[in-house]
Amino acid sequence: MGPVPLSLLLSVTLLVAVLLTVAADEATGKDDYTWPQGKVPLVWDKRTVHLGISSFTAEPQRELHGTCGIECQRDLPKPSVHDMEKLLSYETMYENGTRTLTTVSVMGMNEVTDWPGNSSSSTLRSRRKREVYGIDTRFTIADKQFSTKYPFSTSVKISTGCSGVLVSPKHVLTAAHCIHDGKDYVNGVQKLRVGVLKEKSRRRKGGKGRGGRGKGRRKKGQSEKDEKEEAEEEKEETGEKQERQRKGKGRRSRSRRSAESEKPSFRWTRVKQTQVPKGWFKGVSEGMAADYDYAILELKRAQKTKYMDLGIIPSVKKLPAGRIHFSGFDDDRPGHLVYRFCSVSEESNDLLYQYCDAKPGSSGSGVYIRLKEPGKKKWKRKIIGVFSGHQWVDVSGAQQDYNVAVRITPLKYAQICHWIHGDSSECQNT
């Protein structure tokens, strides 16, 4: 028997590490570590006005500057109901480029118990810029047997170069900076699409795939309009693929073409509308903009892929190991889903500060944890935040860098739930 390839040894080692992590979480998870239940405030639409069409002149942001850091956030006064109504008002951008601004009213804000952040007064150490350093702890989920199964299947790719997570059959949660820079929408959002990983099917003669349908046959429950839109999207996707192949023809070796053909493919769906909180807009929240770096994308077609529910947790650091998990499409591993987990180093009421290894492209990923369902032994994953990415934050008058995630607070939960369901009465409890 010859020597075992180093790549195989590394793959086995990483897999064992993941399994041990999951086992450790389950072993330390007592009945006390269950998803908290309780009432959340209600967010109601108050007034909607029409705005002009966006110019789509913004460029995608790789990192955010001037964020109010942990010490800064500890000194912020508790926002009033009026302040929160201003920050949670939102802008909706439709597929034709038109926009509306909706002001909201918040009910029950003072009736909900505060969700305390970390009260640690430890000194934050200065660090050099970090995305990945030391040993890269990310795991490439290259095997479609895993990447297309829950929970990895909830991760999606945004056409502007970010990631997102399915939170309903037709809604994707992502980072606001992936579609808006605080002043204008990013160039490309006017044709925004979301890609869901799919398993490639073998094509038979006549264009019919295994388990697929032949030409002229419509899916059950599919309207003629939906069928036409799906055909247009498939045509567009095929055209883009053929263009890439044409440009690269003659320049790639056979082995490289073979390797690329094995990459996971995406099923692309156009976005019907996007919703961004006014708290993200410059001139509204000032240094707190990162607290509202989240957005919801409503898809034109519902996905059959299982989605992940939203959750609220008072403190991640007080949980076993204080770990968070998320998967995204990092730029340095094109076409592949990348999973990672790490412990939260610091937390405030609105942000999670951590050193999860990440690269551009993973922004917008859904950050989740695993806890037991109340009264049950079953574990359930829920989204508790959105990975914002590498950010420069103000600490003691100096800028330091961290990898930051926006946490789902009771008010943000109420707002996002309202965007998804359109009825706040369905969002009273977690």
Automatic annotation (TrEMBL):
PROSITE patterns on file: TRYPSIN_HIS (PS00134)
Transmembrane regions: none
UniProt domain Peptidase S1: residue ranges: 148-191
The keyword Membrane belongs to this UniProt entry's keyword annotation: no
GO CC annotation, single: extracellular region
First-listed, main subcellular location of the protein, grouped into a coarse class: secreted
Segments of skewed composition (Basic residues): 200-220, 246-256
Region (Disordered): 196-269
Subcellular location: Secreted
Example of a GO biological process term: proteolysis
Signal peptide residue numbers: 1-24
SUPFAM superfamilies cross-referenced by the UniProt entry: Trypsin-like serine proteases (SSF50494)
Family matches, as Pfam families: Trypsin
One Gene Ontology term of the molecular function aspect: serine-type endopeptidase activity
Cited InterPro entries: Glutamyl_endopeptidase, Peptidase_S1_PA, Peptidase_S1_PA_chymotrypsin, Trypsin_dom, TRYPSIN_HIS
Keywords annotated in UniProt: Glycoprotein, Hydrolase, Protease, Secreted, Serine protease homolog, Signal
Family: Belongs to the peptidase S1 family.
PANTHER family per the UniProt record, alphabetical: INACTIVE SERINE PROTEASE 35 (PTHR15462:SF17), SERINE PROTEASE (PTHR15462)
Name of the protein this chain belongs to: Inactive serine protease 35
Organism encoding this protein: Chanos chanos (Milkfish)
